[in-house]
Amino acid sequence: MSTAMNFGAKSFQPRPPDKGSFPLDHFGECKRFQEKFMKCLRDNHFENTLCRNESKEYLQCRMERRLMAQEPLEKLGFGDLIGGKSEARDKS
Amino acid sequence: MGGSWLTGWRHVVLCGWRWSYAGSVTRTGEGVEPFLRLWSRGTGSAERGLRRLGTWGRRRMTQDFTSQPPRRTKRTNPFTRAQEEDWRRRNKTVLTYVTAAAVGMLGASYAAVPLYRLYCQTTGLGGSAVAGHASDQIETMVPVKDRIIKVTFNADVHASLQWNFRPQQTEIYVVPGETALAFYKAKNPTDKPVIGISTYNVVPFEAGQYFNKIQCFCFEEQRLNPQEEVDMPVFFYIDPEFAEDPRMLNVDLITLSYTFFEAKEGHKLPVPGYN
């Protein structure tokens, strides 16, 4: 990051998240899905593309438990996973 | 006759003002008259002034008013006088309108700041000039499969906050245009509930504009009960336009860094938005 002396340079402007903040999962209701996701990441050398199904499931869990605002999955970028679930399975 | 004298006085007052301004020496009628005669050859306004002051001089001085022949120009015509009055009235109206417009512009420039803020709050644009770029874009964006970017995670805690805050994965490989999930973990080892608030930073600086967070845990107070441990997810994506930016050709590594502060009364965090 730029030093404090660098007055002329642009400083980083943090932007608020598009959909706001996740409420905290105090009771660990979705912890199982989270552990599944982390395991998938570790197995696949931390490649996100191969674990998108698990991340979709985690977000679905959150939405069910009212820990996240309900959103159609297309709006979260999972459009390709809804219709062709088998497609994702084939990829991974 | 009284009426005409009244108007005469009004014109004299005007002219008296004009002459003292121009000459910066107030002269009596006698001294002024030859001066006026000189001037009368020049501008037309002076001619008018001459006529006015001529009346005044005739009124005040006991001089013979025959020394100055009354000018029977068409300006003594009541029609032209009325026309001049009409012009003067119209000039005054125009001047009033122009002044009102100038004052209005000044007021509008002051009012623009809170008005724009109100507009942004109602339309939810929040500072970005493009409306609705987020949700529509996520639906339609196509992942750029040939650009693999490594995103590393960093977690920091302010000295006064006693949380154990760390990322659950050191790195993750994503492609632009694909949404990704990452986790941080925070534990409150103390016996008291603690409220923290976080901010983030993205390095390199130019890549930060392509880093879009859909949902995270930043900028809102998060409360941890004693001995509680929670997972904090970050749901983000890298804009597909990242792949088309020539400055980003050599960028393969993006570091996302979160810092937690303790939320105290009166403590002001650099939270984005209109505060």
Could you explain how this protein is built, in words?
Chain A is an all-alpha fold. Chain A contains four helices and no strands. The N and C termini of chain A lie far apart (37 Å). With 275 residues, chain B is an alpha+beta fold. Helix content of chain B is 38%, strand content 23%. A five-stranded mixed β-sheet of chain B has the order 3-1-9-5-7, with no helix packed on it. The longest helix of chain B has 46 residues, at 78-123. Chain B is elongated and about 110 Å long. Mean pLDDT of chain B is 77; it is low at 11-26. Chains A and B meet through helix 1 and helix 2 of A and helix 5, strand 3, strand 4, strand 5 and strand 6 of B.
In short:
With 92 residues, chain A is mostly helical. Chain A has helices at 31-43, 52-64, 79-83, 85-91.
Distance between the termini of chain B: 70 Å
- Which H/E pattern describes the elements of chain B? HHHHHEEEEEEEEE
Uncertain segments of chain B? 11-26
> Could you tell me the radius of gyration of chain B in angstroms?
40 Å
**Count of helix runs of chain A:** 4
Q: Beta fraction of the residues of chain B?
A: 15-25%
Number of strands of chain B: 9
Strand percentage of chain A, roughly? under 5%
Give the overall pLDDT of chain A as a whole number: 78
Oligomer: heterodimer
| Total number of helices of chain B | 5
Report the average pLDDT across residues of chain B. 77
Strand order of the largest sheet of chain B: 3-1-9-5-7
Structural class of chain B: alpha+beta
Q: Structural class of chain A, please?
A: mainly alpha
Task: State the distance separating the first and last CA atoms of chain A.
Answer: 37 Å
Shape of chain A: extended
Subcellular location (chain B): Mitochondrion inner membrane
Organism (chain B): Orycteropus afer afer
Pfam families (chain B): CtaG_Cox11
Membrane topology (chain B): Single-pass membrane protein
